[in-house]
Amino acid sequence: MEQRTAELSQALAAVEAQKQELESALRQKEEIQNQLQDELKDAQLLHTISAMLVDENSVGELYQKLVDAATLVMRSDFGSMQRFDEEEGKLQLIAHRGLDESAVEFWQWVHAGRATTCGKALQLGQRVVVPDFEVCEFIEGSADLIAFRQAGVRSAQSTPLLTRNGRLVGMITTHWTRVCQPRERDLQLLDIIARQAADLIERNASAEALRLQSQRLIEADRYKDEFLATLAHELRNPLAPIQNGLALLKIGKSEQVPRVLPMMERQLGHMVRLIDDLLDVSRISRGMITLKRDRVTLKTIVDSAVETSRPMINAAQHKFTVTIPGDNVWLHVDLTRVAQIISNLLNNAAKYTPSGGEIELVGEVTGSTVLVKVRDTGIGIAQTMLPKIFELFTQVDGTAENAQGGLGVGLALARRLAEMHDGSIEVTSPGDKAGSVFTLSLPVDHAVALDRNPGQHPASHPVGNALRVLIIDDNVDAAETLALVLGVLGHTTSVVVDARKAMATALEFEPDVVFLDLGMPHLNGFDLARQMRGEAALNRTYLAALSGWGSDDDRARSLEAGVDRHLTKPVKLNEVEELLAQLVQRR
Ligand code: ADP
C-alpha cells in the first residue's frame, strides 16, 4: 500500500511538472503571437503611411502627412517638422499637427540655444527625449517652458532628420500633454519616417535649386536677347548718318564737306566709344586690363576728360563749368582710365540733361581722398534705380527716348575702373527732373604730392621730315585710309593687303616704319615680324604692331616676335603722328 502511494505521488509530480512545462510553452506561444501581432500592426501602419506618401504630389502636403504619420506612430498629441536653414543656422517650422497659432509663431524659428527638445537636438546632433518638462534641467525656468505650459505640452522627443551622408536637414518632433517616456519600438518606427522626411527635404532642396537655376537661365537668355536688340540698334544708329555723309561726298558736294565731315566724325566716334566700352568690360571681367599707373595731377586728368566730352556738351548747348583746386593735387593712377571714368560721367550728364541745361564739374580734396563731382540739372534718377544703374546693361526705363544711344555699359565700366584704382563712384539724385550728382572718389598720392616736377604731358609734334611707311593689313579700307592720312602728312607710303607678299615688298621698299596688323589670314603678324627681324636689310626698320587686343599677353608676344611698339586698334591719329615724330627726331 505504501509502495503504491509513493508510486502515485511520483506520477502526480511528473504530471504536475508536465503541466507546468505545457503552461510555460503556452505562455511563450502567446508572447510570440502578441509580438507577431505587434509587428504586423507596425508593418500595416508603415504600409498605410507609405501609401499616404506615395499618393501625395505637393511637397507641403507631404510634409504634413509625415508629421501626421509621426504623431500616429508615437501616439502623441502634437507633432511638428522643421527644416534646417544652413545660412541662418536655425530650424524653421514647415508643418505641424495640433499646435495653436501662438505656438506656431513662438517656435517659427528655433536656434540651438533654445530650451526645447528640438533646440537641444540641434545642438547635440542626436535625438533628445524629455519625458517631463517640469523636471528637466535645460528647460527649467525658461520662456519656452511657460509657452509649453500655455500650449498644454508636458513632454516631447525630437529626432534629427539626417540625409544618407549624415547631413542635418531638419527635425521631427512629437509632443504629449502628459508625462511620457516613448517606447523603444515606437522610436524605431519613427526613425523610418525620419529617413523618408530627410530624403524628401533633400530632394525638394535640389529641385528648388534647379528651379532657381533654370529661372536664372531664362532671365539671362531674355537679358541677352534684349541686349542684342539694343546693341544692334545702337550700332546701326550712327551708320545712317555716316552712309548719308558718304553719299554726299561721293556726288561731290564740296560745299557740304565742312558740315558733313564733323558729323561723320562724331558718329564714328560714338560707335568706336560703344565698341571700346564693350571690349573694356569684357577685358575687365576676364582680368585682362592692367593699369599703367603714373604720377599725374588732377588737372591733367580733368583736362583730358573735358577734351573728350566737350563736343557732346557743346552740341547740347549746356552751360559747363569746371572748378578744381589748382595744379598741385597728385594721383598715382592710369591717366587714360581715370579720364575715361570722368568723361563717361560728363557724357551721361550731357545725354540725360535736356539741351540748355547746366553741368558742373567740381574737384576737391578731403583728407587723403580726391572727390570729383559731376552735377547736372537733367532728368534725374528715381530712388529705386539709384543702386541699379551701375549694373551692367542697366538702363532706366523710359529714358530710352532721352538717351542719345547707349548700352548701359558706361557706368558699370566706370565703377569697375574706379575700384581697380581703390576708389569708388556714388550717385545721388533728388528724383524726377531734379538732376543728378555722381561722385568719383580716389586716393590722393601723398608720396608725390610735393613733387613739383611732373613729366611732360605728351603733345603732338608736327612731322618735319618724310618717312617711308609700309602698311600691312588685310583690311583694305583700314590700310588705305591710314596710307592716305600719312600721305597727307607728307610721308611716303606703301600698302600690302596680302601678308604673303609683305616680305618681298618690304625688301624692295626698305621702309623706315612698318605698321603691321597682327591678325591676318595665311601669315600672322607675329610670324611676319620674326621673318623681318631675320633680314639684315630691315634691321633699321621700326616695327609697330596694330592689334585689336591690347592685353599684356599680346604685348609680350609682340615684343618677343621683335615688334618695337604694340598699338591697340583703332589707333588714334595723334598716337601715330607722335610715334612718327619721335622716329624723325631719332633719325
Ligand atoms: P547708357 O548711358 O549707355 O545707357 P550707363 O551705364 O552710362 O549706360 O548709364 C546707365 C543708366 O543710368 C542710363 O541708361 C540712364 O538711365 C542712367 N543715367 C546715367 N547717368 C545719368 C544722369 N546723369 N542723369 C540721369 N540718368 C542717368
Q: What's this model, at a glance?
A:
The protein has 587 residues and is of the alpha/beta class. The protein has 16 helices and 18 strands. Adenosine-5'-diphosphate (ADP) binds next to helix 10 and helix 11.
Named CATH topology of the largest domain:
Beta-Lactamase
Number of strands: 18
CATH class of the largest domain: Alpha Beta
Main sheet attributes: strand count, strand direction, barrel closure: 6 strands, antiparallel
Mean pLDDT: 87
Task: Give the C-alpha Rg.
Answer: 41 Å
Structural class: alpha/beta
Overall tally of structural domains: 4
CATH homologous superfamily name of the largest domain? GAF domain
State the helicity in percent bands.
40-55%
What percent of residues are in strands?
15-25%
Level-2 CATH architecture of the largest domain? 2-Layer Sandwich
Poorly predicted runs are 398-403, 448-463
Q: What is the strand arrangement across the widest sheet?
A: 3-2-1-6-5-4
The general outline is elongated
> How far apart are the termini?
155 Å
Number of helices: 16
Ligand types = adenosine-5'-diphosphate
